[in-house]
Amino acid sequence: MLDYLWLETRRTLRDTGFVIGGIAMPVMMYLLFTNLGEADGGWRTASMVGMAAYGAVGSALNTGGGVAEDRAIGWLRQLRVTPMTAREVVVGRALTGSVTVLPAIVAVLAAGGLVNGVRLAAWQWAALAVLLWLGSFPFTLLGLGNGYRLTGPTTGVVNMVCNLGLAVVGGLWFPVELFPGWLRTLSACTPANRFARLGLSVADGHAPAPDVILVLAAWLLVFGSYAVLSYRRSGRTA
Length: 238
Description:
Blueprint: H1 2-13, H2 16-34, H3 41-73, H4 75-80, H5 86-100, H6 102-114, H7 122-135, H8 137-149, H9 152-170, H10 181-187, H11 191-203, H12 210-237
Helix pairs in contact: 1-5, 2-3, 2-6, 3-5, 3-6, 3-8, 3-9, 3-11, 5-8, 6-7, 7-11, 8-9, 8-12, 9-11, 11-12
């Protein structure tokens, strides 16, 4: 299991397109959104959390693209002859995805602190990075489920649509206070919105609310089940 995790991590981090797209895009969007016109410190902090979450979601979903490529070259067939169960394979790949989201999170937080002058206590910076890292697991599992179920090109398109949809409806780009009432209600049920709330709670100096954790845990179970079922289905269709 550990050997498999190390192998997949190295393969992902060697992907230049992933490194550039997963890190540079959210940083550039963050700096653009917060330096057009007058932006106060509160918006720069909130946008920093939202864009770090957006980068983490994109990097997590990107794990599914590698899985789709694995199917095409027959790597998944090789995994099925090993003693690992479907759950172990999915968890191992999810752990790989959790490692690859860290560069995007750290890059946006660094831009906030070094370029935009966001000031937080040391414990808040550390807690913010850790919570955003842990909170990315549901999205990694969603990307894996898509990769195990769909072809390579289709996985890329579906993951892109998921990323944009979750970001917009979840309020990662714009404050949910600007949404109409029905959309604010819908947004509160989305994993992306609750994911960002993890970080916003820490930035405000308090622990996340119980409903934030419960909603994310529910989506973790949903996307985890989807990933395991997709992996098993891929064995029947490969």
